Amino acid sequence: MLPLPVRGEEAGGRGSDATSMAQPLANVLVVSFEQAVAAPLTTARLADAGARVIKVERSGGDFARHYDTAAGGESAFFVWLNRGKESAELDFKNAADAALLHRILARADVCVQNLAPGAAERAGLGSEDLRRKHPRLITCDISGYGEDGPYRDMRAYDMLVQAESGLASITGTPEAPGRIGVSACDIGAGLNALAAILQALYARERTGVGAALAVSLFDGMADWMTVPLLLYEHTGSVLPRTGLTHPLIAPYGAYPVKGGGELLISVQNEREWRRFAESVLQRPELVAQPEFRTNAARVENRAALDREIVAVFAALERGPLEQRLRSHRIAYGAINTVAELARHPQLRRLPVDIPGGEINLVAPPVRVRGEGRKPAPSLRPVPALGQHTAAIRAEFAE
Fold this sequence. Notes:
13 strands; 2 domains; formyl-coa transferase, domain 3; Rossmann fold; alpha/beta
C-alpha cells in the first residue's frame, strides 16, 4: 500500500494525526463515487478504521445531503454516513476533472461506487477499465440487482428491494406486509461490501493484485431470506407475518404486564423453557404437558400457551416480573420508542464536527477490548460540499 498520510486539516479534526496513523487502514486511500446509504456506509467504516476517503461529489452533492435538516441543519443520513471523509466537488464530464480523477485513482487502493446503472462506465470509471490500468486497485461496485440478469439495469432503492426480495412479505402484521423501519437492504449491502474490501486488501498483501468486487442490495437480502426460502422450498410452508411474535419459536413475543405496557420475552431452548415454566410462571406442570413439551408443539399451540403466560404476567408489575426473569436467566426486553432509545443507559455517543457546529452521533458499534483504559475514540468531521476540492486539485496536480 502507498504511504498516504491522513492530514489533520483535510481528514482530521478531533483525532490527531498520530492517532490516525496508528489505525489499521491509515495508509489506505479510498476514492468513492457514492450517494445515499450503501456505499457511504462502506466508506464511513473504512474511514473510521483510518483510511483516507475522498468522496467525489457531482454538482449539488450527494443527494442524501438534502434528505432533511434534522442534524444541526444537516441531513441526519449524511452526518451518520460521511464523517471522516474529504469532499471534492468534480464534474465527470469535464476533461480536466476527469484527468484529475484518473491521477487520484492511479494512487488509490480502493474505488467504491454505487451510481445509477451504467453511470460509472459512461464516465470512463468502470471497474473493468480501472482494473486494466491499475492492477493493484480494488474496485467495488454496489448496485440494486447485480451485473447480469434481467434486472441489471433497473434502479433500485431500499424499500423496493425489501419488497422484491420477499422481505416485506414476512414483515408486518397478519393484516398487511410492512417495511423494516430502517434501510436494511442498503445497510446489508454496505456491510457486505466492507467485508469484501477488507478481504481483498488482505489478499493483496500476499499477491500484490487487487480485485473487482460486485455487491448488490438484492443478493444481500436474498441471503438474509435463506431460512424462509428453504422452508418454502422443502416443506411448502410460508412464514406468517406475526408482528412481535417469532413464527418458529415459542414463547417468543410481547405480553401485557400489570400497570400497562408490554414486555418482550424469548425462550430459545428446552432448558430455558423449563426454567421459565417452573420459576417465572411458577407452573411446573406445563413442562410435561404434551402441547408444550417441545418447541414445535408450543408453536402449534401458541394461543393456549399465550393464555397461560398472559394470566401470570398481567398479575405482576413490571419491576418484580423483570426481576423474576433476570434471576432465572430468561431473555427479555422493553419495547422502546426512539425517545426511550435516546435515554437508554447502554447507548454510547460520540461528538462529531459538522459544517454548522457539533452533534452527538451513536458511537461505532465495534470496540477493541481494553479500550476503557485508552483515550476515548474520536470521530473525524463531516465535510461540507466541496470543502477539500482546492486542496485535492493542488495535491494531485499534473
